Task: inverse folding
């Protein structure tokens, strides 16, 4: 298996594609530039199996309709944010970009921490709220990789001033769910470069003294 980061849209939100040697892949947070994303996947000859969302802010969901038109694959999201996909006020598109982003397809809702198996991919789901109430991190133990969305960044943490954000909850999520992972675990965030759990424990100023 291998992962690729594709920054998309004006906020350069990281979409990730995790591909398997059997030619299948899953797509994390297709946030914008849907035609570009679809074209890239087609060029690689991959067959997408699912869209996995870390959360439902507009910059993480904007390309879903384009992907769905092409492949009609399941969309996974935490149940607390299922209504956000079709509501521009909840997903923030109405007041951040003046454009109404509405996902036209019903998602499959994740209700609790669990193991999620899709084709030959197996993820451990970690509920990591704080940036948003339904934020999920997807841990791929065999690759020592976690797709953290906007919870933890290289040298920073997710913002908590958006609707449903909660700073104390975010810090608990990072401490209780992420920092307990092996230090060599690669963190793939929603914006910016990758990092590791160990690097953030050592140098992230937001975590010092926590």
Result:
């Amino acid at each position: 298996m291998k992962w690729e980061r594709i920054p998309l849209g004006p906020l350069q939100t990281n979409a990730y594609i995790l591909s398997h040697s059997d030619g299948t892949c899953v797509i994390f947070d297709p946030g914008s530039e849907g035609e570009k994303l679809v074209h890239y996947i087609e060029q690689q000859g991959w067959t997408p199996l699912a869209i996995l969302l870390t959360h439902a802010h507009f910059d993480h969901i904007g390309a879903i309709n384009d992907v769905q038109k092409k492949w009609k694959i399941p969309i996974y999201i935490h149940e607390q944010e299922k209504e956000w996909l079709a509501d521009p006020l909840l997903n923030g598109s109405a007041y951040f970009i003046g454009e109404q982003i509405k996902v036209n397809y019903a998602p499959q809702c994740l209700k609790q921490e669990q193991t999620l198996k899709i084709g030959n991919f197996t993820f451990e789901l970690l509920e990591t709220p704080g940036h948003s109430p339904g934020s999920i991190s997807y841990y791929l133990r065999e690759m020592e990789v976690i797709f953290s969305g906007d919870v933890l960044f290289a040298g920073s943490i997710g913002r908590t001033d958006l609707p449903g954000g909660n700073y104390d909850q975010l810090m608990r999520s990072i401490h209780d769910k992420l920092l307990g992972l092996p230090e060599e675990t690669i963190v793939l965030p929603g914006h910016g470069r990758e990092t590791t759990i160990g690097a953030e424990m050592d140098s992230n100023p937001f975590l010092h003294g926590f």
Summary: The helical segments are 34-44, 64-71, 88-91, 93-96, 167-178, 197-203. The chain has a mean pLDDT of 96.
